[in-house]
């Protein structure tokens, strides 16, 4: 509800209270209360740290043989997830024995992304939560709880970050990198070394290369692979 709804009774209030100073004070109090309530409602995230809430999958994109990008809808197009940068969520499903399975995942999106959030998930054979993501189809719902974690990134916290990531461990780093680069007031520089078995295993490469090209003075990424194939090209301004 718009906070302007709180002001509907103001004309009648003025007629009932013909005292200028008192009316001005009362109107000021009503207005400030309305603004506070409105802002609080808008800023409240969709997550609950104590209870799982279900979010609908609206898009699933396979980005490697065993990894997919999942996009979930929030309740409204203007809703925010409410996850501080540096924290993660817990996702719940069932394991192969029908028992509850809970695993932590870091969304790669932030509260500047309205109406949705995204997870990048590597699905391991025999993984307790992996089978749930393998079977998840667009229109299905996933129980999620959070925020979780003790670390919260603050803009300008350090002058530069040196990050080392491997495989799907890129997601916590990506979340922080993206938040830093999307904030023009944050002058923090980031240097990332990202290791994988093969070039085909590099996750979010297009996004990372885009960051390196758009912010050459603020972000550098070095890709390291243990197996090289002549048929695969990984050369770019941000690659080794």
From TrEMBL:
It comes from the Eukaryota. Its cofactor is FAD. It is found in: Mitochondrion outer membrane. GO terms for molecular function: cytochrome-b5 reductase activity, acting on NADH; oxidoreductase activity. Pfam families: FAD_binding_6, NAD_binding_1. Keywords: FAD, Flavoprotein, Membrane, Mitochondrion, Mitochondrion outer membrane, NAD, Oxidoreductase, Transmembrane, Transmembrane helix. It catalyses: 2 Fe(III)-[cytochrome b5] + NADH = 2 Fe(II)-[cytochrome b5] + NAD(+) + H(+). Residues 50-154 form the FAD-binding FR-type domain. FAD binds at residues 104-105, 120, 122, 129-130, 171. It is an enzyme of class 1 (oxidoreductase). GO terms for cellular component: mitochondrial outer membrane. InterPro entries: CBR-like, Cbr1-like_FAD-bd_dom, FAD-bd_FR_type, Flavoprot_Pyr_Nucl_cyt_Rdtase, FNR_nucleotide-bd, OxRdtase_FAD/NAD-bd, Riboflavin_synthase-like_b-brl. The chain crosses the membrane at residues 20-38. The keyword Transcription does not apply. One of its GO terms (biological process) is electron transport chain. SUPFAM superfamilies: Ferredoxin reductase-like, C-terminal NADP-linked domain, Riboflavin synthase domain-like. Its EC number is 1.6.2.2. Signal peptide: none annotated. Belongs to the flavoprotein pyridine nucleotide cytochrome reductase family. This is NADH-cytochrome b5 reductase. The lineage of its organism: Eukaryota, Viridiplantae, Streptophyta, Embryophyta, Tracheophyta.
């Amino acid at each position: 509800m718009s906070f302007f709804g709180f002001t509907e009774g103001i004309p009648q209030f003025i007629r009932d209270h013909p005292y200028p100073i008192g009316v001005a004070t009362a109107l000021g109090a009503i207005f400030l209360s309305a603004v506070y309530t409105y802002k609080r409602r808008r800023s409240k995230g969709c997550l609950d740290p104590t209870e799982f809430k279900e979010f609908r999958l609206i898009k699933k994109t396979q980005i490697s043989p065993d990894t997919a990008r999942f996009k979930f809808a929030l309740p409204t197009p203007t809703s925010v997830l409410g996850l501080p940068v540096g924290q993660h969520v817990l996702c719940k499903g069932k394991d192969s024995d029908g028992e509850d399975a809970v695993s932590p995942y870091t969304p790669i999106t932030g509260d500047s992304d309205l109406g949705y959030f995204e997870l990048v998930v590597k699905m391991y054979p025999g993984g307790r939560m992996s089978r749930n993501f393998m079977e998840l189809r667009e229109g299905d719902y996933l129980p999620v709880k959070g925020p979780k974690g003790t670390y919260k990134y603050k803009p300008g916290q350090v002058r530069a970050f040196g990050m080392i990531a491997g495989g799907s461990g890129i997601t916590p780093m990506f979340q922080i990198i993206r938040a830093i680069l999307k904030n023009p007031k944050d002058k923090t520089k980031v240097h990332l070394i990202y290791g994988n078995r093969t070039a085909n295993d590099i996750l979010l490469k297009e996004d990372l290369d885009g960051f390196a090209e758009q912010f050459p003075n603020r972000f550098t990424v070095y890709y390291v692979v243990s197996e090289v194939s002549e048929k695969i090209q990984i050369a770019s301004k941000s690659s080794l």
